[in-house]
Structure formats: structure tokens, C-alpha cells
Write a structure and sequence with these properties.
This protein is an alpha/beta fold and 388 residues long. Helices cover 34% and strands 14% of the residues.
Length: 388
């Protein structure tokens, strides 16, 4: 797929907030606030998916139940290998990883080597994980885990919605079995990143997205199940990770931005030696360098939109975003617009809302949490003590 330069009309950014590290919003009157949040992630692990996985592992309130994989950024088998390797890098090789459907429901799979590299992780090279893939089928994992803890599980989708559509076919009552669904997908008031009006995850399998959106058409009328929170490009392209963010994260981990040791950080270990390299920061540097080069070519800045990490953070703390209920459908037959998420902001259709679309986000607060948590995890995994 060819990506072309584009100009995106954005609304004004959220007010700036003082950058603090590891904020966790808790409501004293909410009994669930102090309990772990069970999360199941469905992904197509490329670079930003991997950052979301690292954020999940780094978040103390996140109980990462399982990860299901589908084709998208790369083929499903490579997605699964990437997912296992990233989880092992983060010290969570025990998390179940399952492959679901490897192709979209109707269309041929198109991948994005221009964006994520031929293997999906940019320039990074991770050793093959020791953990093995689950024997369960991805959509079955979603259904079975939702049934096992009804009303508790949050499903976070960072990929084409193929696995979720199949899970709904197996269990039509899935929306009521889940506590919440958070979707990274769509472009509701901005231009697209695949075609002029389409976002990648929805464009890759629009039929699946339509099935999922329609399944929640009656949600929310009695307060349960809530509408899925959908984070489109309108909001996620404000989560712009820059080299200075990576430098701050590396400093928390006690190393240089490329993962090499800073002078005096490891007694007796020369700077630049293999023993001195922080593996997680080195991974981030190598993966993000590819991603930043892509955005430099097509978006006019040297940095990276980390769409998926913002979605994962929202699943753990929905106060990060401000949402608006809206009816959304997916175009399937357009000559120029197939995969477009058509949002009825003016209530022309007269249909009830099926999504809570994010219209604003506290990006500074998100980056404070991302840098603080992943930096601390990198320090722990690198055998270094965070100095801040």
C-alpha cells in the first residue's frame, strides 16, 4: 500500500498540563478503582502496538489476561512472533498469546511494510521468544475469557476488527459480557492515513468493523453495556512521540537514548559494551527510528504517532479522553471511500448512538504516564536503578 503526504485539519489541542510521572486517577467512591483492571488486547503487533503492550506490562493496575493476534501491519504469524518477543522483553512471557483469523473476512490482506518495516518492528531485532503460542483460537479466547469473568473484562482492539467480529458471531451477547471495549480505529472528523478519508485498522477489514459497530447499536440504553470508546485519528494523531520524549524515558532508565550506558551508570562496565546496553530502550530506539523516518517522509515531522498506546492508556483510565456519543457506520461500497467511518454528528439518520467517539485527550498527562511507567520498567528490566 502506498502512503501519500497529507494535510490534516486538527482541532485545537487540549490545554497543557504540567508533566508529571505515573499519574493514576482513582475515585475513592469507586470500589473497582483500587482493583486490577483485567485487559485483553487484540492486536496486529507493529511498532505502536508494541508500545501499547509495554505500557500494559508497566502499569500496576493492568491485569494482562491474554493477547490475540490478527493480520494487519504484518501477517498474523509475524504478528504473533512479534507479540511473544515483546512480552518476553518486558518480562511477561507468561501471558497467553493466541492467533485468530489471518486474513480479513472478505478482502485480501494488505500489510504496511512502509510504515512498520518488513517484520513489523522497524529496525529492531528481538530474539525469538521461548514461550509458545496458545492452542486456542483468538476469537475463542475473547469469548471464553469474557464468559469466565462476566462484566469485568475490558477488550482493547488495536488491529483490524476481524477477531472481534468472529467472536461476536460465536457469542452475540458478547457486548453484555464485557465491562468495556476500547477501539483504536476510524477517522471521525479528520482526514485518513490510508486513503483520504479512511484509517488503517477499519480500512483493512471494513466488513468486520461494520459488524462490531452494529453489535453495539442498542448498547447504553440501560447503562449496560456501555458504548465502545473509539479513538480515531482525530485524537491519536495528537499523541506525537518526539525524540525528547524518548530521551526522558531513557534518562529514567539510567541510559542514553540509544540504550547504551551513561558514564558511571554501571560500575566496571564500559559505556557501549554489550553488558551496558539497556535492551528495552535499545528496542524502542531501533523501532521508533524507523517509525520516525516514515513520519518524516509523509507527515512532515520527525516523530511518531503512538495511536495504540493512547488507546491502551484510555482503557486503564477513561478520564484521559472526552467523548461524545454518535452513530457511526462503515462505508463498504464506495469507489473512493471504502472503509470510511461515517459519523452522524448532526443526527440526520435519527438512529441511536453506537460509539463513544473521543473528541479530546489529555496528551501531556498521557505522555507523563507513558514515560514514567515504561521508563521504570526499562530500568528494572535493564538491571538499572531509576534515578528519578
Amino acid at each position: 500500500m502506498r502512503f501519500e503526504p497529507r494535510w490534516v485539519v486538527r482541532t485545537a489541542p487540549a490545554p497543557c498540563h504540567e508533566l508529571t510521572y505515573d499519574p493514576v486517577v482513582r475515585k475513592p467512591d469507586d470500589e473497582r478503582a483500587a482493583r486490577p483492571v483485567p485487559i485483553l488486547v487484540d492486536c496486529d503487533t507493529g511498532i505502536d502496538d508494541s508500545l501499547a503492550l509495554l505500557y500494559a506490562v508497566a502499569s500496576p493496575e493492568c491485569e494482562l489476561v491474554a493477547v490475540t493476534c490478527t493480520g494487519g501491519n504484518v501477517g498474523a504469524r509475524q504478528v504473533a512472533a512479534n507479540t511473544l518477543a515483546v512480552l518476553e522483553l518486558a518480562g511477561r512471557g507468561d501471558v497467553e498469546v493466541a492467533i485468530g483469523r489471518e486474513t480479513p473476512l472478505v478482502r485480501e490482506l494488505v500489510t504496511t511494510p512502509e510504515t512498520h518495516g518488513p517484520r513489523g518492528l522497524g529496525y529492531a531485532e528481538l530474539p525469538a521468544a521461548r514461550a509458545k503460542l496458545s492452542g486456542r483460537f483468538g476469537p475463542d479466547v475473547i469469548v471464553e475469557e469474557a464468559r469466565r469473568r462476566p462484566g469485568e473484562l475490558t477488550l482493547v482492539t488495536l488491529a483490524p476488527l476481524t477477531n472481534v467480529a468472529l467472536a461476536l458471531q460465536r457469542e452475540p451477547d458478547l457486548p453484555r459480557l464485557l465491562r468495556r471495549v476500547v477501539i483504536m480505529g476510524g477517522s471521525y472528523r479528520s482526514s485518513g492515513n490510508t486513503a483520504p478519508t479512511t484509517e488503517w485498522n477499519v480500512s483493512c477489514d471494513p466488513e468486520a468493523a461494520k459488524i462490531v459497530f452494529e453489535a453495539f447499536a442498542g448498547a447504553g440504553s440501560d447503562g449496560h453495556p456501555p458504548h465502545p470508546i473509539a479513538l480515531g485519528l482525530d485524537v491519536t494523531e495528537r499523541a506525537k512521540l518526539l525524540p525528547e520524549h524518548l530521551a526522558r524515558l531513557a534518562a529514567l532508565a539510567g541510559c542514553a537514548p540509544d540504550g547504551s550506558a551513561q558514564a558511571g551508570s554501571i560500575p566496571g562496565s564500559p559505556s557501549g559494551s554489550a553488558a551496558a546496553v539497556n535492551p528495552m530502550v535499545r528496542y524502542l530506539a531501533d523501532a521508533l527510528r524507523f517509525y520516525m523516518e516514515f513520519h518524516s517522509r509523509y507527515d512532515g515531522f520527525y516523530g511518531a504517532f503512538i495511536h495504540d498506546a493512547l488507546a491502551l492508556a484510555t482503557a486503564l483510565d477513561p478520564t484521559l479522553v472526552r467523548t461524545q456519543p454518535v452513530t457511526v457506520d462503515v462505508e463498504l461500497d464506495g469507489r473512493l471511500t471504502t472503509g470510511e467511518t461515517v459519523a452522524d454528528w448532526r443526527h440526520v439518520w435519527g438512529e441511536p448512538p453506537n460509539l463513544e467517539v473521543a473528541v479530546d485527550a489529555e496528551i501531556d498527562r498521557f505522555f507523563g504516564s507513558f514515560i514514567g511507567r515504561v521508563g521504570k520498567l526499562a530500568a528494572e528490566r535493564g538491571g538499572l536503578a531509576a534515578t528519578r
